[in-house]
């Protein structure tokens, strides 16, 4: 007879408790895996950020994303000359 044969012939209350405990274990395992994945992703993002950091200690991507949309558009589409001009227009 198998070691856990009582689960094969178990009465309904026992089977219900067993299934509830199994579901809780699965949920706990899922949360643990999710937390580990989130931690690994944060670590990877920080490593990528550290690779981008320039000599002044600034992350060019963070600087770009902190710019107003007009400046981002000018920088991305039209070049740095228009960024300087648009900056002068909005700050004067």
From TrEMBL:
InterPro entries: Cdc37 (IPR004918). This is Hsp90 co-chaperone Cdc37.
